[in-house]
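Hey everyone, long-time lurker, first post.

I ran two proteins through the pipeline my lab uses and got sequence/structure pairs for each. Pasting them in order. The first:
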Amino acid sequence: MKEETAIHVENLTKMFGDFTAVNAISFDVKKGEIFGFLGANGAGKTTAMKMLIGILTPTSGNADVAGFNVNTQPESIKKSIGYMSQKFALYDDLTVKENITFFGGIYGLTRKQINEKRYQLVEELELQEIVNELVSSLPLGWKQKIAFSVALLHNPKIVFLDEPTGGVDPITRRQFWELIYKAANKGTTIFVTTHYMDEAEYCDSVSIMVNGKIEALDTPKKLKEQFNAESMNDVFLKLARG
């Protein structure tokens, strides 16, 4: 794996019985870049991500994430990354403060580090009014922003975001992407899955999956030129039609 590469993937494949969910995908993600992993629901994005974060074992192929191998060092990968799941990111029955403390402990931070991080997070997101509120009482947009910040608590080299803006309004989506840019500017590599094609425009590099395969991979600008398209949505529609 090259020094400037955060993720290296080579012919990564996942089969469930006779069904091939991810079909021999290969790509590299540079350190500090925002990498968009796009595709329609069911294209294989989440399955691929689960292999990269050490939750699923590949059927074949190989990948290195943050310098660790997905086949032989999945536990080391989990300690080196941040992860924000589409369905579960925070405990609804805990307060914002309790969530930050709990996840800080899971990530191995000391009590002093947790207190410092909590103060920093509360100040940055202006959570003073809601820090002692149950997460279940918060709007989805707030939950997403707090969940992303919690995924960054232990200063991971790479953060994986699975459909982070699903179901939130356009203003909240824009605010969320501002948080992503801020993290990337500090050197964190961002790996984000989404089915919102307009969000591809915010990424440094983009791959588009169709039926388990990567059918396009480049910068948004070059992909639009390649497919003679005005937007990434047009690129995706052309790919989907075959």
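...and the second, right after it:
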Amino acid sequence: MTTTPAAPPAARPKRRQGDRIFAGLSRGAGIFILVALAGVFVFLAIEGIPGLTQPASFYAPQASTFVGYVVPLLFGTILAAVIAVIIAAPLSFGIALVISHYAPRSIAVPAAYVVDLLAAVPSVVFGLWGINVLARKVAPGYEWLYEHLGFIPFFAGPPSTTGRTILTAGIVLAIMILPIITAISREIFAQTPRLHQEAALALGATRWEMVRLTVFPYAKSGMVSAVMLGLGRALGETMAVAMVLSAGGGITFNLISSSNPASIASNIANNYKEGTPGKVSVLIATGLVLFLVTFLVNFAARWLVGRSERRMAR
């Protein structure tokens, strides 16, 4: 009985020099980002942990403990960011869909450039526009909301006469994160397999039915990623919120009154320059809380995207 010799193992393809260089640079960039992130966390932990146990005078007049001091700030941060996402996400998806599937190329390309240019506008410019233009324009609208919808806790009033409310700050943040969500969604929508779209149209689906049945299911994970990235940007925004918001402290769901909760980032920007060493450590501790919240948001986004991709792979 003769046995056939085993086939020699296939030789691994030789990697080109350019591929090795690119792989090394990519790996080094990833490691550098992780090291920088760890460095930021270590700095915030070392400088901020003393702020957790400062005397009550350092948290006055808002509170007497660090928890009582940071909770209203965290509430304001999340509230402004959620308002921004609620406003920006539908608009961003609609704009991205128009650019990728509805508008002719002669309109879609310039529109995409204009949306992308919004991302290059400094936040201080948005803040100046918000306080000098938007706040004045929306103040009469807040009066109308108070008169007609005052029974809803969000519009219980009394309305702010200056328009510098948490809702105005949320609108400004929505405009700031709109290009991020739009750009990512546009690219995801454009990558939907052409055969799937043509098959849906061939079966008699309308343009909207084709989008709903082929584009949205394919792009769902990318849409979640876009929203979470926009949320992360809104959570950490500083100057625009600090300039627009007239913060009064406390926790309230009233969106149109003058009593507004401050955000962590705007509170740091407003108080860091004139703070004593003990007060600075308290502010850095609040920055550590914001860092952890942002990290958890991005971690949750990555988990949601991974779960969606695993479901689609089945």
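Reply from user beta_strand_b:
Welcome! Quick read of the second one: The chain is about 70% helix and 0% strand. The chain has one domain: 23-313.
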